[in-house]
Automatic annotation (TrEMBL), chain A:
Membrane-spanning parts: 12-33, 74-100, 107-131, 137-155, 176-201, 243-261
Identification of the protein by name: Oligopeptide transport system permease protein OppC
Gene that this polypeptide is encoded by: oppC
Topology relative to the membrane: Multi-pass membrane protein
Gene3D superfamilies xrefs: MetI-like
Subcellular location: Cell membrane
Amino acid sequence: MFYSRIVQNRFVLACLFLILLYILISFGGTFLLPHHPNAQSLTEANRGPSFAHWLGTDYLGRDLLARILAGVRVSLIIAFFATLINISVGFLVGSAAGLIGGVVDRFLTGLIDLFWCVPPFLVVVMLTVVLEPGLKNIFIALGAVFWVPTARIIRGEAYQLRNAPFIRLARLQGAGYSRIILLHILPGCFPVLLTTAIFSIPDAILAEAFLSIVGLGVTAPDASLGVLISDGLQSFRVYPWQWFFPVLTLTMFVLCFNLLGDMIHRSFRDRTKGILEYD
Amino acid sequence: MLTYILKRAGFNLGVMVVVVTLTFFLMRLLPGDPFMSQRLNPEIKENLYAKYGLDQPVSKQYLDYLAALARFDLGESLKYPGRTVNEIIAESFPVSAAVGFLALVLALVLGVALGVLAGVWQSRWPDRLILACSTLGLSIPNFALGAGLVYVFALKLKILPVAMLERPVDLVLPVLTLAAWPAAVITRLIRTEMIEVLKKDYIIAAMVRGLGPASVVLRHALPNALPAVIHYSGPLAATLLTGSFIVEKIFALPGLGQYYITSIGNRDYNLVAGITIFYTFVLLISTFLTDLLAFSMNPQCRYRNES
């Protein structure tokens, strides 16, 4: 009932629709396009938007529209798995620390505090270098730092729930920690996890773009939004469309997720305080 | 108070040691070595290793590094021969810090002003406008904003230079680029706090006593909304002052952020460790100072800090 009320908001619906459109077009649209995202044609390099190439071509004559669609797909995959790692590791660590308490809590909280102090981009950059840049390793590196704030919030939630009557009852009935975490803590933390997940996706997409600009993006010839923006930044003074279209795609997507997150964050007001450092 | 400061200093020292150890060993775990791109003879390489002490066992290197660190000596850069890390930081930090400081001031002034306006006119059109702008500001990444500003103001309108660092005007675009995101965050932070504070009894009491709206907002509400921003501005100051790789790349600024990323790629062990230590140092100092500021403004923060 509560979730249906959120979805009834027109603003949220519009955002959801756009996000769905992004997913559908990026995963389905490439089959409809005449150009392969990696097909080069040097005679047509650096052409502006035209009828043959709707969004123009890049420095190797590759069709920009096809590359943007492929790029959105790669960025979405990275964001999805980074968020999945963030949510699952954050939830497991946080709930184990909050529920079990004692030595386990002190160890895990210490771990969280330790990660909290190290600059996150340092860890991401180093992990990507150690694991070698590539789609899988980028989301592993991102997940490795994203889970820290999540774990901290979930720990607080689990700590509060620890002595709730229904958890005590479950414990009396002989439920183990894993059962309590999955059946009793998880539903209680769901609003927090949902909000964290929604904000983690634009974060991951922006972080991927940062990594690409630094030179640690997905390996050529594959495209991600970050790689396209990074290429575009090299030449935006002469061929602005090579920079403009990928940036527009990325900004729209991030904006959608931020608006959606704001709405959901606001409707869970009292539950999700502290997820955003602002608001 | 003194015990609090001492406790914080001890904790910060512990964090520094952890960060030093982590960067020291993580860098040496990376595949490759500092001289791999130069295709050197094995003998020359051996000599280079001996020169920088890299032929010693890692534990010996680590202890040597710590001993040098205690004398504030960050060692010699492996990629820029003859230049010490201290020199490189001393040369590039002022550039980053000048841009970062201006951006910090701009973000604080703009964010607090807009946030107060939005909070006072909650749910009316000024609030909606400001909120929309700040959401947009949060969603436009700096590589988009920076290049966009260059394109519009430098290439099309030709009022500002593309990338130069001679006159103060040249700093306008990088400062704007850096300040946009934090300004949006601060706006929302202040807005939320103001809405909470304006509901409090003492605000009603102040109004009942006949104080004007400006006095109520600025003297009674704002000081109680500020601590949140002060807490946020600690880490923010460290990030802005030590420079952003992307902004420095777009505007070709000779700042610290550029050295950092390139030195990781170069496996310049000493430079990476040096800049990381420097960044952590700035971060800890600024967090500490902002905590003290919040502490002196509002005794309630004491409990938040000590727990």
